[in-house]
Write a structure and sequence with these properties.
five-stranded mixed beta sheet, alpha+beta, globular, 10 strands
């Protein structure tokens, strides 16, 4: 089994048997997990902020950093592995979007990230079938390419399948 670690603002897709895509310590960030059952392909992006217009140079360098550039970039990566439009349904799962280090709800980055992700997914005709978002907890997400099993790991909580 090989771990494919997805860092902050990164994305990856795999259909390699034995791979596990994993991202760590999601606070206000959101992990978008895409599973394509027909091709047994899994993709994940670690979204940090909702909109790329605040830093177009960063979006060009690291499209996964923003919801509006990260999801389209992930879909392009998955298309390279055979997941083109019309090749079967895509399963979507979301995790993260917590309220972290913002006690006064001044910025609401977690909530804004979740809403931005859902808006972009909707533009592609996609919607989440499972989500573990909000609250004030950190989450680590692991997705097994062989099974599509998506596990959420959080301190002080039992692991849960999404």
């Amino acid at each position: 089994m090989s771990n494919v670690v997805i860092g902050v603002g990164d994305l990856a897709a795999s259909k390699t048997s034995g791979d596990v895509l994993k991202t760590y310590a999601l606070g206000s960030c959101v992990a978008v997990v895409l599973l394509h059952p027909k091709t047994r392909t899994v993709g994940m992006v670690h979204v940090v902020l909702p909109e790329s217009n605040i830093n177009p140079a960063k979006a060009k360098e690291k499209p996964g950093y923003f919801a509006d550039t990260g999801i389209p970039a992930l879909l392009r990566e998955m298309a390279k592995l055979g997941c083109q439009k019309g090749s079967g349904p895509m399963v979507v799962k979301l995790a993260g979007g917590a309220q972290i280090l913002d006690d006064n709800n001044t910025f609401n980055i977690g909530k804004r990230n979740v809403l931005a992700v859902k808006k972009v997914l909707w533009q592609f005709g996609l919607g989440a079938v499972g989500e573990d978002v909000g609250s004030t907890i950190s989450r680590t997400v692991a997705v097994n390419v062989n099974t599509g099993e998506t596990v959420i790991i959080s301190p002080g909580r039992p692991n849960r399948n999404l």
